[in-house]
Amino acid sequence: MEDRPRILVVEPNKTALSVLARRLSDAGFRVATADSGSGAIAELHRVPVDLLLAEISMPRMSGAELARLIRSHVQLADLPIMLITGRSAPKSAVLAYEAGADDVILKPFHFEVLVARIERRIARMRAVEQLAQDKAALDARVVERAIQIGELKEQLAEAQARARA
């Protein structure tokens, strides 16, 4: 099913990446993976995703740095970002939020709760996208009506001028 949400999972530990990707796939998501921040950026340009789930602690580019980079990219700025961190790193969670993460998941976590949080973020993103589409459609209708009103005013002015003549 192509309407299943696609999640990009970024995790430098290959075993953890494999387990998380498999479990998310089993939960009904399409899953793309990357093992680094630069790999995640490349993957984001290759295939559209509905949500990014990344480890905060990664070599070369942290999850917070990845979030900041994504937020600075116009076409990716609204992508929901969830970062995973250990309970012993509350400062990194604060930095993640400051960088633009939408949510920070503390390890260890219950997988069912993670899935519920992912589903909620994606539902919210899709609702916002629908509102934006509805707004664009309404704006187009307003412009169309304004043009019609302008044309009717011109016709009325012409009819009044003919009536006076």
Explain what this protein looks like in three dimensions:
The protein has 165 residues and is α/β, with parallel strands linked by helices. The chain has one domain: 3-Layer(aba) Sandwich (Rossmann fold). It is 59% helix and 16% strand. The chain has five helices and five strands. It has helices spanning 14-26, 37-46, 63-72, 90-99, 111-164; strands spanning 6-10, 30-34, 51-55, 81-86, 103-107. The protein has a five-stranded parallel sheet, with helices on both faces. Helix 2 (37-46) packs parallel to helix 3 (63-72). It is elongated, with a radius of gyration of 24 Å. It starts with 5 loop residues before the first strand and ends with a helix. Residues 6-122 form the Response regulatory domain. Keywords: DNA-binding, Phosphoprotein, Transcription, Transcription regulation, Two-component regulatory system. It comes from Sphingomonas lutea. It holds the Pfam family Response_reg. One of its GO terms (cellular component) is cytosol.
CATH architecture: 3-Layer(aba) Sandwich
- Which class best fits the helix and strand makeup? alpha/beta
Query: Would you list the SSEs in sequence order as H and E?
Result: EHEHEHEHEH
Cα Rg: 24 Å
Q: Any idea of the CATH topology?
A: Rossmann fold
Number of helices: 5
- In what order do the strands lie side by side in the largest sheet? 2-1-3-4-5
Keywords: DNA-binding, Phosphoprotein, Transcription, Transcription regulation, Two-component regulatory system
Protein name: Response regulator
Pfam family, one: Response_reg
InterPro entries: CheY-like_superfamily, Sig_transdc_resp-reg_receiver, WalR-like
